[in-house]
Design a protein that fits this description.
Blueprint: E1 11-15, H1 39-46, E2 55-60, H2 69-75, E3 108-111, H3 124-128, E4 133-138, H4 141-154, E5 158-166, H5 170-183, E6 189-192, H6 194-200
Parallel strand pairs: 1-2, 1-4, 2-3, 4-5, 5-6
Length: 202
């Protein structure tokens, strides 16, 4: 019998909703298109009660132990080369309640790479186990979301991207959709709206 991810207990992963990417934060360095427009849809998923302690929020940070091409990357992005706990890398105030729950469960995943999947010791993988079903939201669809989706799918995870809970330009959305529909079907990466996802897990 083929496993159906619509019938399991998925994990909601909110990717990199940080000040550094906000389109309303002063000098955000990497402002992403329509950043604040996706917040209500992320909250709609997070507040649905369907994910309980299976909600993770990721942080991208520069880190200090960089090698090879990452050194050149930050030479060209000096505004982002700040300590990991600089306010630029803070989760935006509107979504901090996802972290500050009073639970003993650590819901924050911090990585120095676009890909937040990681391995059995760090990243999303370390929290969810080997082959989870992931619902991905956040920024940006054509960068950190896609990088995480591809790595997780390659490892055998079931991946659903909430298309209207990810920010990007129209061009970025179109290009990413082409990649997913062209190379990751059937079953590896699926694009669905928030309402479709909630209907699946209603």
């Amino acid at each position: 019998m083929t496993h159906s991810p619509s019938s399991d207990n998925p994990w909601l992963v909110v990717i990199d909703m940080q000040n550094i990417f906000s389109d309303q934060y002063p000098n955000p360095v990497w402002s992403t298109h329509d950043f604040h427009k996706i917040i209500p849809n992320i909250k709609k998923l997070a507040d649905s009660g369907r994910y309980a302690d299976r909600t993770l929020i990721t942080r991208f940070v520069a880190g200090s132990d960089r090698k090879g091409s990452w050194e050149d990357y930050y030479l060209g992005n000096k505004g982002a080369d700040v300590p990991d706990f600089d306010i630029l890398y803070d989760i935006i105030p509107e979504l901090k309640y996802l972290v500050d729950t009073g639970s003993d469960v650590d819901k924050v995943v911090t990585q120095t790479t676009f890909n937040k999947w990681g391995d059995e010791k760090s990243g999303v993988r370390a929290k969810t186990g080997e082959c989870p079903h992931l619902i991905l939201t956040g920024v940006a669809l054509g960068c950190c979301v896609l990088s995480t989706a591809m790595a997780a799918a390659e490892a055998g995870a079931y991946v659903t991207i909430a298309s209207d809970a990810c920010s990007d330009t129209d061009e970025g959305i179109s290009a990413t959709t082409t990649i997913i529909n062209g190379a990751y079907q059937p079953g590896l990466i699926t694009l669905k709206t928030v309402d479709e996802i909630l209907k699946d897990h209603g």
